[in-house]
Amino acid sequence: MDFSSYELILYDIDGTLVDTAGAGMAALIETAESVFHAPGPSLDLAGSTDLGILQNILDHHGRSFHSAERDEFFLRYHGHLQSNLYSGKYPARILPGVADCLERCRTEGVATGLLTGNTREGALIKVTHFGLEHYFPFGAYGDDFADRNLLGPVALARAGVFHQRAFAASRTLVVGDTPKDINCARAMGAHCLAVATGQFSADALRSHGADFVRESLLF
Ligand SMILES: [Mg+2]
Fold first, then answer.
1. CA–centroid distance, residue 115 to ligand 1 (Å)
2. What is the pTM of this model?
3. How far is the CA of 15 from the centre of ligand 1 (A)?
């Protein structure tokens, strides 16, 4: 895998950089139950945006939120997420090869950012927990849009603002672990490296049309 042919690499978080071992799922369930006082729907988190997940929860309860209620929901979620990660109850871990891969990008001068379904604050909590925050000075997040396919151009624009130069989608690599990451890369006109460190096998990711597929980010 030759990263130097790319000028920008955008990383997904869950299943790609880290495995929170259920800490994130539990935080969402705890938040939803504390807000609605009833069990919620079963959640399909893989590749979903937090706004999209919240919409599923609201649909399940036949509710809608105005923006202050949405902000309050995510504020509670971020509190649960932070305390779950720090509780030690979940064997959260950084995934194989991630630290070396990010360091290689840095030394080769390839810009790195996030392209994730997590809210901005949720993303920051997760990458900071693993000491990775300095690799990700910008990103596009799951509270920018519910539709992940709209996040690519946001990430490109923020890369441009941060680095004070234009980035081309054609020289951007999206790294993710689900078919939704592959769709998102395709929607923005970037290449996709799919890693089988989440819920999807290398074969499943290959058949979904990823440009590159690897078992992990170990090189
Ligand atoms: Mg993921």
1. 10
2. 0.96
3. 5
